């Protein structure tokens, strides 16, 4: 659905994924999980820094998304805070610390990336449709 499918009223529908891409291991896992979602066409990865910078076309793209998932690596919740400061409050949320992935102690492995991506898919599935 994220690549863009037409709804019954002809409007394009898509999901977006925003991730912390911090310098730590959990930031790298968050980033790679969002890239996995994008490759699998579950949620197109979009730049959370562009939201923080107020880039109009990226904010508009986020406002038009059917669903959004935000993935944060640690308990600083940077990606979540960026989205909220931009007025984007309606999103599914995944924080790696809540998945027992501790900053500085979690290897960046395919298994950890897949685990986070699967949790993000579930979070998206459970989150109500934003802009139908």
Jot down its keywords:
Rossmann fold, alpha/beta
Please tell me the total number of domains.
1
Helices and strands, in N-to-C order?
EEEHEHHEHEH
Gross morphology is globular
Order of neighbouring strands in the sheet with most strands? 4-3-5-6
Structural class: alpha/beta
Which architecture does the CATH hierarchy give at level 2? 3-Layer(aba) Sandwich
Overall radius of gyration = 14 Å
Roughly what is the average pLDDT, rounded to an integer? Answer: 91
Proportion of strand residues: 15-25%
Can you count the helices?
5
Helix content: 40-55%
CATH fold call? Rossmann fold
Q: What's the total count of β strands?
A: 6
Instruction: Give a short account of the largest sheet.
Output: 4 strands, parallel
Describe this structure in words.
With 132 residues, the protein is α/β, with parallel strands linked by helices. The protein has a single domain, classed as 3-Layer(aba) Sandwich (Rossmann fold). Helix content is 40%, strand content 16%. The protein has five helices and six strands. It has helices at residues 25-39, 48-52, 56-63, 78-85, 110-126, and strands spanning 5-6, 12-13, 15-19, 44-45, 67-72, 92-95. Strands 4-3-5-6 form a four-stranded parallel β-sheet, sandwiched between helices. The longest helix is centred in the last third of the chain and has 17 residues, at 110-126. It is globular and about 40 Å long. The two termini are 13 Å apart. The relative contact order is 0.21.
């Amino acid at each position: 659905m994220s690549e863009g499918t037409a709804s019954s009223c002809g409007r394009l529908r898509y999901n977006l994924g925003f991730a912390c891409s911090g310098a730590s291991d959990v930031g790298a896992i968050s980033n790679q999980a969002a890239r996995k979602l994008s490759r699998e066409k579950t949620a197109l990865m979009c730049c959370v820094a562009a939201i923080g910078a107020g880039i109009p076309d990226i904010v508009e793209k986020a406002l038009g998304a059917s669903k959004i998932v935000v993935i944060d690596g640690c308990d600083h919740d940077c990606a979540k805070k960026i989205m909220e400061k931009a007025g984007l409050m309606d999103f599914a949320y995944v924080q790696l610390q809540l998945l027992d992935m501790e900053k500085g102690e979690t290897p960046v492995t395919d298994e950890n990336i897949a685990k986070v991506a699967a949790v993000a898919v579930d979070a998206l599935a459970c989150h109500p449709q934003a802009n139908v």
